[in-house]
């Protein structure tokens, strides 16, 4: 009887020990602004938990709420997450000085785990400040040109034969002549024409002309940048571009109003309605180049995972992030579900990227996108980079749209305003904290991210 009692005690102790160990799983919290990313990690939660013996908690926040809460967390008024998933563009949280940055540099881990050889350098460049790589990019988001071959051919233009943007906009003038022959109006590109945004932003990347110097100063008055802006203005004055209508964009493609557009991988689906309608032949190709011999690649949008300051055991967290972003099976599944090109060079030879796409006359769309990804220029970043873009955009609007200033004044005003920002030595984070209402995000968030969503785990 004593032996049975002793055995039961030992068994109970083992069960209790196992239960306690299970209960002591480390909770790893992720804050994200991206619904699609959260959905992916939610589906993979069991695998992630099992591989690292953790309990992954995923919180979906609106961009505005993300910035507010993360700023509070960095000041100590709220518990910080272990991982953040944030946007590459207009990111607001990175700094050249690691002591001031909200997240830690990952250089040593990137090198240790071989990611420097696997991930394209251009995607790291957008989240690198003074040599500090602060995150792991989720996708490459290479841009290509989608065009309505039917409409362009009616104008007598073979878009596939165009080499440079100068040629593109010269040929685009022929689209305007179609209206004189009783055809509806057709435009060559959509563009907000508000400075370095959307179409202008993507073509500017191809020039490889930096807007900052290596020490972080604005460089709008460089001869190369001035040449680019003058060229852009000359293109705009052809009248072949029309403003973006985000909510009506798919319809404009389907009815031929917009005869072509620069499409990162997440925007390709805007052609689905046109392809389904079958009225036009939709084609896809790499972007024209800025000048002959230059790179055809460009990119727009994206997100990255990063480790906030103070996170316990950052190397383990890095391993978790590496698995979340770059597990081969998950990346392939991500492409199947989204059509987004991964930044991992070592899987681009997978057969899934050879599939033909009936929307674009059976073109191997991924191969065209991958060529763009291979040709993505690296962007030189600085602490005020996104603020500098806003400074330029304000002056460009005053010059081109409002007609209040001359071209030279636009350039000099943008440079002067950006230099005031640079010389003030004001911490960009202080600007965010004191001016959160003007952080670039609308009070009304998109429907799917209006409310904070803490996934049930």
Give a verbal description of the structure.
The protein is an alpha/beta fold and 457 residues long. The chain folds into 2 domains: 183 residues, 3-Layer(aba) Sandwich (D-Maltodextrin-Binding Protein, domain 2); 198 residues, D-Maltodextrin-Binding Protein, domain 2 (3-Layer(aba) Sandwich), CATH 3.40.190. Strands 6-12-3-1-2-13 form a 6-stranded mixed β-sheet, covered by helices on one side. Strands 10-7-11 form a 3-stranded antiparallel β-sheet. Strand 4 and strand 5 form a beta hairpin. The two termini are 43 Å apart.
**CATH H-level superfamily title of the largest domain:** Periplasmic binding protein-like II
The SS-based structural class is alpha/beta
* Main pleated-sheet profile: 6 strands, mixed
Shape summary: globular
Overall radius of gyration: 25 Å
Count of beta strands: 13
In CATH terms, what is the fold-level topology of the largest domain? D-Maltodextrin-Binding Protein, domain 2
Q: What kind of assembly state do the chains in view correspond to? A: single chain
Distance between the termini: 43 Å
Q: Within the largest sheet, what's the order of strands?
A: 6-12-3-1-2-13
Note the total helix count: 19
Poorly predicted spans: 8-21, 431-457
| β-strand amount | 5-15%
In the CATH hierarchy, what is the class of the largest domain? Alpha Beta
Helicity level: 40-55%
Features:
D-Maltodextrin-Binding Protein, domain 2, three-stranded antiparallel sheet, six-stranded mixed sheet, alpha/beta, 457 residues, 2 domains
């Amino acid at each position: 009887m004593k032996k049975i009692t002793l055995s039961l005690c030992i068994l109970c102790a083992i069960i209790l020990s196992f239960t306690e160990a299970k209960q002591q799983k480390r909770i790893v919290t992720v804050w994200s602004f991206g619904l699609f990313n959260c959905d992916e990690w939610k589906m993979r939660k069991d695998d992630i938990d099992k591989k690292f013996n953790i309990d992954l908690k995923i919180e979906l926040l609106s961009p505005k709420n993300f910035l507010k809460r993360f700023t509070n967390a960095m000041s100590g008024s709220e518990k910080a997450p272990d991982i953040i998933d944030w946007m590459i563009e207009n990111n607001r949280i990175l700094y050249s000085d690691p002591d001031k940055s909200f997240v830690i540099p990952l250089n040593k881990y990137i090198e240790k785990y071989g990611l420097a050889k696997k991930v394209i350098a251009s995607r790291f460049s957008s989240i690198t400040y003074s040599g500090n790589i602060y995150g792991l990019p989720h996708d490459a988001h290479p841009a290509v040109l989608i065009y309505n071959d039917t409409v362009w051919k009616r104008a007598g233009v073979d878009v596939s034969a165009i080499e440079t943007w100068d040629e593109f906009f010269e040929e685009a003038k022929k689209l305007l002549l179609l209206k004189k022959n009783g055809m509806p109006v057709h435009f060559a590109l959509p563009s907000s024409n508000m400075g370095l945004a959307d179409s202008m932003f993507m073509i500017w990347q191809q020039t490889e002309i930096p807007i900052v110097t290596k020490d972080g100063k604005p460089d709008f008055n460089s001869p190369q940048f001035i040449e680019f802006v003058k060229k852009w203005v000359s293109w705009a004055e052809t009248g072949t571009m029309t403003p973006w209508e985000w909510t009506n964009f798919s319809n404009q493609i389907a009815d031929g109003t917009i005869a072509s557009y620069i499409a990162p991988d997440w925007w390709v689906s805007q052609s689905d309605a046109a392809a389904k309608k079958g009225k036009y032949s939709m084609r896809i190709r790499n972007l024209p180049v800025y000048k002959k011999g230059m790179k055809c690649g460009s990119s727009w949008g994206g997100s990255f995972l990063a480790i906030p300051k103070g996170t316990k055991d950052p190397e383990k967290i890095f391993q978790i992030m590496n698995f979340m972003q770059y597990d081969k099976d998950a990346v392939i599944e991500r492409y199947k579900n989204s059509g987004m090109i991964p930044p991992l060079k070592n899987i681009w030879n997978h057969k899934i990227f050879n599939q033909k796409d009936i929307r674009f006359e059976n073109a191997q769309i991924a191969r065209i996108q991958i060529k763009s990804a291979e040709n993505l220029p690296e962007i030189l970043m600085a602490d005020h980079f996104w603020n500098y873009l806003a400074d330029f955009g304000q002056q460009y609007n005053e010059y081109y749209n409002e007609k209040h200033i001359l071209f030279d004044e636009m350039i000099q005003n943008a440079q002067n305003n950006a230099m005031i920002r640079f010389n003030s030595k004001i911490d960009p984070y202080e600007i965010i904290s004191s001016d959160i209402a003007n952080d670039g995000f609308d009070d009304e968030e998109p429907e799917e991210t209006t409310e904070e969503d803490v996934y049930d785990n």
